[in-house]
Amino acid sequence: FSSMRTIIDVGGGRGALALGILAAHPQLRGIVFDQPAVAAGAREAIAAAGLSERCEAVGGDFFEAVPDGGDAYLVKFILHDWDDERSVAILRTCRRAIPHGGRLLVVELVIGHGNEPSFARTQDMNMLINLGGQERTEAEYRALFEASGFALTRTIPVFGDMRIIEGVPAAG
User: Fold this and answer.
1) Which terminal Cβ of the chain has fewer Cβ within 10 Å, N or C?
2) What is the pTM of this model?
3) Domains in the chain, CATH or no CATH each
4) Which among 33, 37, 40, 36 is positioned nearest to 17, based on CA atoms?
């Protein structure tokens, strides 16, 4: 994050991810974007963290639009709530907002190769049954990125099956 100025946490809830990043990177500014009622709670968390000068909470609908101009768009544990069509819709709103040179950082569980049992596979069933969503493989994330105007640049292991799936605006 050292070369970035602004991060936008899409579906950021009360802002825990954004606030943690801002605390570690004092040059950054942030926007926590979520539904209006959720954004109200994020404002309280931002104030309690003493970061009101560098972070704001914005309410809206990520199927319609997200704030423009972030250097990084963070989408953590959001896409697994939705089927492919709705996930592409979310990513397309990010694509419309992201500037040239910006980065998309999706944090999700990623299903590995083969059929061995894993937490991601168990969660895949939970997401399908409870929300109609799903966990995905790296290839499935690549397809979502391509369908929404992003190129998947790398997948970074975090812990267990959790990955940061990084993308940039696709050329053309």
Assistant:
1) C
2) 0.91
3) 6-169 (3.40.50.150)
4) 33
